[in-house]
Design a protein that fits this description.
single chain, alpha+beta, 4 strands, 50% helix
């Protein structure tokens, strides 16, 4: 091998080594960039999942809060509607509910709960009739951020002074809609009374069966 050939050979080796080093460096940089992008994508996915989960939890909490408020408002409403021990108490029911701002004027005009019948107060006083709420239970059906609709079950005991024993307990249920923004019952419709063969345990009663 001549000296000139040797020089070309060594120059070629140097070029190949430099090319290999440069190629390796580019591959390393590309791998680092790819790893960084994969890491960012993973972090973004985790963040989106966390935000979605957090949003779902917030919606669940809001819905639960709306149902709780509807239940509490129903308790207050029906206690004022069905708890009375004199004709005077009976006449003041709508006024008390209105003052407490528990329901709309449309609900207070409900013919079943608040019938406009003359002589009712005298009948209550003359017969010593008393009414008391035993239990109120709310069964939600549909709920969103501000509104919930469902069924309210109300157990009411009625007793005359002349009655022997504890009087009679009847079980009524109503369709109801509650608005959280107004903290009021916006609609109320009487469905009926529980039949004799139906369960009167509001813990097991299912109004949607």
């Amino acid at each position: 091998m001549t000296r000139k050939t040797q020089i070309y050979y060594y120059a070629l080796m140097v070029v190949l080594v430099l090319f290999s080093l440069r190629f390796g460096q580019l591959m390393w940089q590309q791998q680092q960039t790819l790893s960084h992008l994969q890491k960012q994508a993973k972090q973004l996915k985790q963040k989106q999942s966390s935000v979605k989960t957090s949003h779902q939890k917030v919606k669940q909490v809001v819905a639960k809060s709306t149902i709780t408020k509807a239940s509490e408002t129903s308790q207050q409403f029906f206690n004022l509607a069905y708890n009375w021990s004199s004709g005077s108490d009976h006449k003041k029911r709508t006024k008390k509910i209105q003052q407490a701002q528990l329901a709309t004027s449309q609900v207070l005009a409900n013919d079943y709960l608040f019938p406009q019948v003359g002589g009712t107060s005298d009948y209550i006083d003359n017969n010593g009739l008393k009414s008391s709420v035993v239990q109120v239970a709310y069964y939600p059906k549909t709920t969103n951020d501000d509104q919930t609709s469902g069924v309210v079950g109300v157990a009411v005991n009625a007793k005359h002074d002349s009655d022997v024993g504890n009087g009679e307990t009847r079980y009524y249920y109503f369709n109801i809609t509650y608005l959280a923004s107004d903290n009021q019952i916006s609609s109320l419709a009487y469905i009926g009374r529980l039949a004799v063969n139906q369960s009167t345990d509001f813990n097991t009663f299912n109004p949607y069966e």
